[in-house]
Write a structure and sequence with these properties.
Chain lengths: 252, 388
């Protein structure tokens, strides 16, 4: 069972502030963390057994997250670095990942986090599955493998579903669905010291042209949802409170 | 000149920060109330390698060096000085004397378990009658056949109640005394006649247990002598030199945490219609804290660099301990003043930090002793010998 885990660095929440008045994000320092649900995806992949390859697209922050994955137990780390990928969107990532799978000589399972902390897009999973024509299971809380069949527990609003799929498949793991083990400090030191811990590939290495990774999405600016007004606590008995609520609704 | 940390040390700090946030901070308040470390936390700290952080990977350590060790002490003490002290007593003085001077056989026997946190170490120097005058120790070790018999007491021993291995300095030749006649032994807690006392009730560092240790004719095999017979005092003094950097690094963490808490508070706290950050009296305190912390950071990491690069460091190590402990006390005190009544409340971690930091001016050589060490070295560099 060959698993490929797709990892995203995201800005550390403490490294920036959002100023609604100025409609701007102020970045105080360049500090990135591994997207939390990607860490859960990595932990789930390691638990299944079999070699795990960690992959990320980008520069120094991407290098950090794949190194962390190696320290946690991934057998191989690949980073795709190319200036043409500076503004890569989900479709560009999908094009790259398809070629990486071919470059690796195939994979049985692609795992990623169910949500992305900063952009909250998480489109790569379903689009990659579509491009590969593989089954896709989102929101997975538990994953086991019996022969060639994956058994997944998927959360819905009020209950859980049991879902089956044959490999190869793309699996999105829900945030906080497992507790990733800490890497041993020795592995952290050795992996971040080792020159050859990460394989760096360019678009040329993957036989991709710039046209094939042309982003379809262009970011023209950011706007901020209006701040929610503070709620109001209602006093009095249940009946009083009900009357007050009715009054509020009437005025809307 | 290069003031940047290596990629592996940067990664180590980030990794430590995650561990501290997730595992240590949520437990600190309760451990302080319980006056005991959480055994589950100690197990986890062992599992990820904290108990062997600076030691060679050959013995199961992490191999992070003195710089890595300072990073750990800074990060952990910023959240919980008790846990920093448990680790410091175990690594920096307890296991360090064995690591520096132990025979290959002793190291292979004990270091893997020490590094994995399966065995906790302690450092037995201070006695009821020998504090600053460490050479005045009385605990006797008498040779009979192939074993020594240890008789006496050690006092204020950090990790004493939880230690599995105690490095004990004992007088083997009373005619020579500590200088030339004292030897270090590894004592296992299971050895008959060894008895740790009840944990002392202290002003701070509640979760770091301290005790009186009693040795009643404890039989220790000859192989458990650390280093050369009669030269134990030298081993212990060299160990303490290294330990002093650790106190500086821990103090740095405590002072930095106090500054960060203050910066958060002065933005949030409104008085006289605006955030107290706009008051110059507050700004002066913040500026003073930041200056002292920056100076301490430079001193601690330069001294760690001296150690990792095999250069003399004893004078600078004493400076780390002396300056660091005083900076921490001043910064935490100022932070408490900035926080007002909230700072005095037991519901807020500053009160614990204030109690915890005071001991750093006392233990591992009082600050008065550090001034003597620094002055001795300074004068020696100028051709004046103060003491034989």
């Amino acid at each position: 069972m060959n698993s490929l885990v797709v990892l995203h660095p995201v800005r550390a929440p403490a490294s920036f502030t959002v100023n609604r008045k100025a409609q701007k994000i102020f970045i105080h320092r360049e500090e990135f963390i591994l997207n939390p649900s990607d860490k859960n995806a990595l932990a789930a992949a390691l638990r299944l057994g079999g070699p795990v390859t960690a992959i990320s697209v980008g520069d120094a922050p991407a290098d950090d997250v794949v190194r962390l994955a190696r320290a946690m137990g991934a057998a191989r780390a690949i980073r795709i670095s190319d200036s043409a990928l500076a503004h890569a969107d989900a479709s560009a990532h999908v094009a790259v990942l398809q070629r990486v799978i071919a470059h690796m000589g195939g994979a049985d399972l692609i795992m990623l986090g169910g949500d992305i902390l900063d952009s909250d897009l998480a489109q790569i999973g379903p689009r990659l599955a579509h491009a590969l024509d593989w089954p896709f299971i989102p929101g997975v809380h538990q994953l086991t493998l019996a022969g060639q069949t994956l058994n997944a527990i998927v959360a819905h609003h009020t209950h859980f579903h049991k879902v089956e799929a044959d490999v190869p498949a793309v699996i999105a793991i829900a945030r906080d669905s497992n507790q990733p083990r800490y890497a041993h400090g020795r592995e952290i030191l050795n992996t971040f010291k080792a020159k050859d811990a990460v394989e760096v590939l360019s678009l040329a290495d993957l036989h991709l042209t710039e046209a094939e990774v042309m982003p379809l999405v262009e970011v023209r600016g950011e706007s901020f949802p209006p701040e929610r007004e503070l709620g109001r606590m209602l006093d009095g008995s249940l009946d009083d409170a009900a009357h007050q609520i009715v009054e509020v609704i009437r005025k809307i | 000149m290069d003031f940047t940390f290596s990629p592996e040390h940067t990664a180590l700090r980030r990794w430590l920060r995650d561990f501290v946030e997730a595992e240590i901070k949520p437990r600190s308040k309760q451990m302080d109330r319980d006056s005991a470390p959480d055994p589950e936390l100690l197990r986890l700290m062992g599992e990820v390698g904290l108990f062997g952080l600076p030691f060679s990977q050959k013995y199961g350590g992490m191999g992070a060096g003195e710089t890595g060790y300072s990073i750990m002490m800074e990060e952990i003490n910023g959240a919980d000085a008790s846990m920093g002290t448990v680790l410091g007593a175990h690594i920096g003085i307890g296991a360090m004397s064995l690591y520096l001077d132990g025979s290959p056989l002793l190291k292979e026997k004990y270091l893997p378990d020490i590094c994995a946190g399966k065995k906790i170490a302690a450092f037995g120097l201070t006695e009821p009658g020998a504090g600053s005058d460490a050479a005045g120790i009385q605990l006797r070790a008498t040779l009979e056949g192939d074993s020594y018999f240890l008789d006496g007491q050690k006092m204020w021993i950090t990790n004493g109640p939880i230690a599995d291995l105690i490095m004990v300095l004992a007088v083997t030749n009373p005619a020579l005394g500590a200088r030339g006649g004292a030897t270090v032994f590894v004592v296992e807690k299971e050895m008959a006649g060894f008895k740790p006392g009840k944990p002392e009730k202290k002003m701070g560092l509640h979760a770091s247990p301290t005790a009186l240790l009693t040795f009643d004719e404890v039989r220790v095999p000859k192989e458990n002598v650390v280093g050369q017979l009669g030269l134990g005092f030298v081993t212990f003094m060299q160990t303490l030199d290294l330990g002093r950097i650790t106190i500086g690094a821990g103090s740095l963490g405590g002072a930095q945490a106090a500054l960060e808490a203050s910066l958060r508070w002065v933005k949030a706290r409104q008085q006289f219609g605006r955030a107290i950050a706009h008051n110059q009296s507050i700004q002066f305190m913040l500026a003073d804290m930041a200056c002292e912390i920056e100076a301490l950071r430079s001193l601690v990491y330069r001294t760690s660099w001296l150690v990792d690069n095999g250069q003399p460091f004893a004078k600078e190590a004493s400076m780390c301990k002396l300056f660091g402990s005083e900076v921490a006390s001043r910064c935490i005190d100022r932070a408490l003043q900035i926080h007002g009544a909230l700072g005095y409340s037991r519901d807020f971690p500053l009160e614990r930090g204030w109690r915890d930091s005071r001991i750093s001016e006392i233990f591992e050589g009082t600050n008065e002793i550090q001034r003597i060490v620094i002055a001795e070295q300074l004068l020696q560099e100028h051709g004046v010998r103060i003491r034989p």
